[in-house]
Amino acid sequence: MSHEVGTFLWAAPEVLKGGKLTVAADIYSFGMLLSELDTHQVPFDGLLTDFGDVMVPMAIVMKVMQGTLRVMPSKECPPPIASLLEACTQFEPSKRPTAAQVLASLTQVAATWGGSE
């Protein structure tokens, strides 16, 4: 998967199903970017099937569209970033935070975890 090109790995389930791009879809994509920054890998990199084979992109897309596959933060991910990542990548668009809520969360993270200059 590390050589995949395109944006489908970052696309919201509703967009993969042919839905319109919305702010909620952008928030989902932002959550996928947070996952990439957390793990240093593209989403679902090296994901294996039940048989131990690397999962093909179409299988990943189908599982994301069905809501049966989500990215998860690493154990090393700071808790407030992990919470934001999980909120942003909710399957249901209405359960994702607004852009203002994301900004507030990031502002709080910067104030708490940012250190001094």
CATH architecture descriptor: Orthogonal Bundle
Mean pLDDT: 91
CATH class: Mainly Alpha
Helix-residue proportion: 40-55%
Largest β-sheet summary: none
Task: Examine the coordinates and then state which fold CATH places here, giving the name of the CATH topology.
Answer: Transferase(Phosphotransferase), domain 1
Q: What is the string of SSEs from the N terminus onward?
A: HHHHH
What low-confidence regions span 5 or more consecutive residues with pLDDT below 50?
A: 1-5
The tally of domains stands at 1
Please give the number of β-strands: 0
Q: What is Rg?
A: 15 Å
Distance between the first and last residues' Cα: 38 Å
- Taken as a percent bin, the fraction of beta residues is under 5%
Structural class by sheet pairing and helices: mainly alpha
Which overall shape is indicated by the principal axes computed on the Cα atoms? flat
Number of helices: 5
The name of the CATH superfamily reads Transferase(Phosphotransferase) domain 1
GO molecular function, one term: protein serine/threonine kinase activity
Domain Protein kinase: 1-109
Pfam family, one: Pkinase
InterPro entries: Kinase-like_dom_sf, Prot_kinase_dom, Ser/Thr_Kinases-Pseudokinases
